[in-house]
Amino acid sequence: MRRTRSTAALVAAAVVAGGLALASPAYADPTPAGTFRKLVGVGSDTTQDVLNALAGDTVNGKSYAGTAVKSASGAGVASYDAIEPGTGSTTSKITTRSGGPAFARPNGSGDGRKALSMALTGDKWPTPDTGVSLKGQVDFARSSSGPTNSGTALTYIPFARDAVGVAVRGAGIDNLTVAQLHDIYAGSLHQVNGHTVHPRIPQANSGTRKFFLNAIGLDNGSVSADIPTVQENQGNAALTEDGALVPFSVGSWIAQNNDVAPDYTKDAAAAGGHLASVQLPGDTGATNPLTTVNGKLAPVDAYYENATFGRDVYNVVPSRAIDPTSIFFDKNLYDIFVTSGSHTAALASDSAEKVIAGFGFQNEPYNGSISLAKHAKLGGLEESGIDASTPSAPAGLKATPGDASLKLSWNAPAPTGLPLTDYRVTLTGSDGAVVAVKDLPANTTSHTFTGLANGRYTASVTGANLNGRGSAATWSGSVKFASTTTASAATTAYGKTPKVVVTVKGSHGAAPTGKVTVKEGRTVLGTGTLDASGKVTVGLSNHLKVATHSLSVSYAGNARLNASSATVSLKITKATPSVSSTAPSSVSHTAKAKVTVKVTATGTTPGGTVRIYEGSKVLATGTLSGGKVTVTLPKLSRGKHSLHAFYAGSATVNSKAGATFTIKST
Questions:
Q1: What is the C-alpha separation between 200 and 234, in angstroms, rounded?
Q2: DSSP for residue 48
């Protein structure tokens, strides 16, 4: 459930008044010792205690097992303190997985984010020489400040609202301005209202340190080197003398002094330590960060709301792990931390927000948001010296439209400093709306989208490494339904018109329209237009070579159907001729008879040789011209002679003998 800030303040007051104060200090890593849970978090001192409580552990002597946040599948949170509970050691080690390596505690927001980054890259923590690989050992980082490095690898999910105040000891520095704080921490102002000041600053990787210095216009390079470093949010160690001052999480001050969080501050408070009022930018008077409600400390809205000293605190997660389309999507992490649409983070439940308010923080309506317009932030990996480049566009993108489908294939992009982790293939329609998204492992270089409607699409393929997604290779074109072309051709004699019968069918009920083309090799032999039933008979030349022809039949497609093709074998045989002879019925034995032979065939004029036979003896030959020839016979002896003409055939016409005829020689 989401609350406004004003409602959260009332909840906070009710909680601190209602018995969260505890009689004895205690501390928490995941309890009992040796407990391992699914989602491991490290980092910020500021939010460690409230995260320990939300994890269901015992904090300051109180068990929060009954309000432990869990994912839909029951996965829990393991939150490890920035320093060793109880001892305060900054050199102790933790083990976050059963059988995993022991590694130095990440102390503060910056260290937490670095450890998370190294859990992704597999690099060694805390140094390449002396550390161990953190691959898979950390799932999220607690952070009280925003990103240091630009990029998209990490998402900073707002968790609650805190503020940074200035804890002081002594009444002389009750009211401070931003200008005074700037000069004190720059080393140029040593007295305020006649009182000597003794500034302290949290450890180097503290999120509170980073936030505070930015608020007063300084950074690590401009803060005075003479200022001692103390552990973040520990008043007893910092406020050891009058005039001492140190940046402090207001939420942490409230939780410690209300006996909700482990006590590192109450002795200093008893000796006069308190949070100073600060003149907020644009105000004429000073504002105190906290107030007292029913005897317990509670936040002051105006201070928490201030853009200079109010701050969001975050849980930092790998961006790819909360992307439901990614192959690295972690549903457990998503369930715990993310509020999006109708999905509410476990950390934003009513019971969780009561715990958050009890630790001095304010609940916001954007807690759990991953929208950059609603306080979420993106940042790069927080390792020094890492190659921050993302992959170039995949090479050689090819697209093959199919039956309501599109197959894409590509080659891997050129290597970068970090290895390729995956590809994302995105398909958008002609209106720009995303039709489908598919994430694929780095060793996959093809994907097919199926079940697509007719239309024009744009496909893009991007490679990713831990720095984020790189440049896209794109393709645009149409996706249609499949067509199937079949063809048949009957054996045809030379001189007759060969016919190719073509049938085209469309899938999904799409009607084929348009033309088909018949080719032999690159030569177009004929075209035809499909009728309403998707059929056409294409007539070809009647002078095709006598042979078996391998023909290609192609359908060009239409607005709804892809092109298709078929092959068909067409056999052209020689024409069958007719042979007729004209000769005199008698001739003198001293004269030479003439025989006229005519050879015909459908669709062609035969050429070639004609021979006149008497029995098996050739009497004369002649060559056809225009399908006819007159052959002069030799003188025939007296008597009857039975003769016939024989056509020897040609490359295109078969041979054939004519009918027998008789000549009487007198």
A1: 11
A2: H
User: What is the percentage of the chain residues whose pLDDT exceeds 70?
Assistant: 96
Same fold across 483-573 and 578-665: yes
**Residue-level pLDDT at 6:** 39
Residue 14: what pLDDT? 38
Tokens representing residue 79 in the block: 């939150």
Closest-CA residue to 318 (of 72, 62, 138): 138
Look at residue 111 in the predicted model and tell me its pLDDT: 96
pLDDT at residue 21, rounded to an integer: 34
Distance CA 177, CA 158 (A): 28
Question: Can you give the pLDDT at residue 3?
Answer: 42
Architecture of the domain spanning 164-254+266-292: 3-Layer(aba) Sandwich (3.40)
What does the pLDDT read at residue 171? 80
- Which CATH superfamily hosts domain 483-573? C2 domain (2.60.40.150)
Mean pLDDT of 461-477: 96
Which residue's structure tokens are 């930015």? 214
Contacts of 456 (CB under 8 A, 6+ apart): 429, 430, 476, 477, 478, 479
Contact by Cβ (8 Å): 185, 200: no
Query: Residue ranges of the domains in the chain?
Result: 5-159+312-379, 164-254+266-292, 395-478, 483-573, 578-665
> 106: phi > 0 → left, psi -120 to 50 → alpha, else beta; which?
beta
Dihedral sign for Cα 470, 134, 138, 106, please.
negative
Q: Burial code of 477-503, b = ≥16 C-beta within 10 A, e = fewer?
A: eebbbbbbbebebeebbbbbebbbbbb
Instruction: Copy the structure tokens of residue 11.
Output: 């909840």
Cα separation, 303 vs 310, whole angstroms: 6
**Residue among 581, 579, 586, 577 nearest 596 (CA):** 581
- 21 near 259, Cβ under 8 Å? yes
CA distance 132 to 134: 6
Return all residues near 90 (Cβ < 8 A) that are at least 6 apart: 83, 84, 105, 107, 231
Residue 457 is encoded by which pair of tokens?
């699409």
What is the per-residue pLDDT for 20? Answer: 33
Class of domain 395-478: mainly beta
CATH of domain 578-665: 2.60.40.2470
- What is the chain's alpha carbon radius of gyration, rounded to the nearest angstrom? 47
pTM of the model: 0.78
Amino acid at 549: H
Q: Computed from CA positions of residues 7, 12, 15, 16, in that sequence, does the dihedral angle turn out positive or negative?
A: negative
Distance of CA 385 to the CA centre of its chain: 26
Q: What is the pLDDT of residues 479-516, one digit of tens each?
A: 999 999 999 999 999 999 999 999 999 999 999 999 99
- Give me the chain's average pLDDT, please: 94
d(CA 312, CA 305): 10
What's the CA gap between 44 and 378, in Å, rounded? 18
**In terms of C-beta density within 10 A (0-12 exposed, 13-18 middle, 19 or more buried), how is residue 524 classed?**
exposed
- CA 223/CA 200 separation, integer angstroms: 11
Read off the pLDDT band of 18 (50, 70, 90): very low
Show Cβ contacts of residue 415 under 8 Å, excluding neighbours closer than 6 positions. none
Contact yes or no for 359/255 (Cβ under 8 A): yes
Omega within 30 of 0 (cis) for the link into 32:
yes
> In this structure, is the dihedral angle defined by the CA atoms of residues 389, 393, 396 and 399, taken in order, positive or negative?
positive
Kindly write down the DSSP assignment for every residue of 613-624, as one continuous string: EETTEEEEEEE-
Mean pLDDT, residues 228-251 taken together? 97
Q: How confident is the model at residue 172 (pLDDT cuts 50, 70, 90)?
A: confident
